[in-house]
Design goal:
Shape: globular
Structural class: mainly alpha
Helix content: 40-55%
Number of helices: 6
Strand content: under 5%
Radius of gyration: 14 Å
């Protein structure tokens, strides 16, 4: 089981001082760097909220989104972008409507972060739906 799966945080969202997520587990002692959620749906909700905030900032290509999600100074962003593009079926510079592509963006990020996607389409859809509440 990967760290993201163990933490119900398949996007490996880092903890940030002063930021509390809806659905964040009250016990964060299991990981000193990444948020621990009570369920995977809340971890996916957080991913969707972040991606929607990127879209509001004008990030609307897979390349710009992933470069922000996983900065090149910390990650092999070229491989990450390629992986997510393959899942989304678009090129890295193609403008996308993030809410429409959300399920594929999330699935691609989960695949890259965890080397697999163990979640059902229903779990991903439920997490995305929670982002709108």
């Amino acid at each position: 089981m990967t760290r993201g799966e163990r933490n119900n945080n398949p996007g490996n969202i880092r903890r940030v001082a002063g930021v509390t997520w809806e659905g964040e587990n009250s016990d964060q002692s299991g990981d000193d760097a990444f948020v621990v959620f009570v369920s995977v749906e809340y971890g996916i909700r957080a991913m969707a909220r972040i991606l929607l905030s990127y879209a509001r900032e004008g990030l609307n290509t897979v390349a710009t989104i992933i470069d922000r999600w996983a900065p090149p100074n910390e990650n092999n962003s070229a491989v990450y972008v390629k992986d997510v593009c393959a899942t989304c079926g678009v090129g890295p510079g193609k403008h996308i409507y993030v809410p429409y592509f959300m399920p594929w963006l999330i699935r691609g990020i989960i695949q890259h972060e965890n080397d697999q996607v163990i979640y059902t389409d229903q779990q991903i859809a439920e997490g995305i739906a929670l982002a709108n509440t």
